[in-house]
Amino acid sequence: MFGLKKWRRNRWMKRPFPDDWESILYQNVPYVQHLPAKMQTKLKGLITVFLKEKTYEGCAGLELTDEIRVTIAAQACILMLGVDDLSYFYDELRSILVYPESYVVKIKNRHDSFFVQEGFQKRHGEAWSHGNVVLAWDEVKKGASDIHDGQNLVFHEFAHQLDYEYGATNQVEDQYEDSQFLSWARVVGNEYKKLLTALHKNQQTLIDSYGATNLAEFFAVITECFFEKPRQLKNEHPALYEQLKEFYKQDPASYIKS
Asked: What is the dihedral sign for C-alpha 10, 8, 25, 23?
């Protein structure tokens, strides 16, 4: 089964990239223009695979278009540019739900065993552990437009998806004995604690303060920083940069200028 999936994906990778998709790609995702030529070619192949396999759903009356599909797929696939073995490619992702703009959800906050407070929360996006990613289209475009601000909704939510599938933050929490994960757990765990300490002291941080919410959000936030502020991250947090470089099999500091 896995051999067939890999074969099929490799076949799709070689298909010509439609001209209208290419126009959307370079207009809506300026990050792509900074990638080396070989990576741009690979990205187009990954986008083709993504659009062949993944399902999109328009929400709140949003009519899906190629612009929406390609723009989202491109950013999701940037995270996967370091992958050479296509036997795996967001395999647990079932669908991408897209709202025209930020949406409101009903939430429950449990304060103790007896008291539950209900309310509403405005969201730009979210990733669910059972294979759905939810995005607000206006925020998708906003995040893609500035490649240096460290704020990219698709990078953030698809980092959560990878976390669910790889267990990246579980490795930090569990402190696995396996030496393959020990360095990752130690470095990411220590950097998370440093962020909490810096914010407690009201210090400015390169890593967005939202990363202090929990380890899962920390991983999503440092992913945004890794891809959009790679040189600053490498200078200020070299050990963390090296761990993310190994995780994503990419070195954006070598081609993304500040």
From this structure: positive
* All domains of the chain in start order, with CATH: 167-258 (3.40.390.10)
Alpha-carbon distance of 80 to 70, in angstroms, equals 15
Total residues belonging to the chain: 258
Determine contact, residues 241/248, Cβ cutoff 8 Å.
no
User: What span, in angstroms and rounded, lies between the C-alpha atoms of 17 and 101?
Assistant: 29
User: 245-256: b or e for each residue (b if 16 or more CB lie within 10 Å)?
Assistant: bebbebbbbeeb
Give the span between the Cα atoms of 155 and 55, in whole angstroms.
18
HEC string of 105-142?
EEEEEECCCCCEEEEEEEECEEEECCCEEEEEHHHHHH
Average pLDDT over residues 116-122: 61
> Amino acid identity, residue 88?
Y
Read off the tokens for 138. 């206006």
pLDDT in tens, 73-112: 999 999 999 999 998 899 999 999 999 998 877 665 565 5
Asked if 161 and 127 touch (Cβ cutoff 8 Å), the reply is yes
pLDDT at 179 over 50: no
Positive or negative, the CA dihedral 100, 135, 82, 234 is: positive
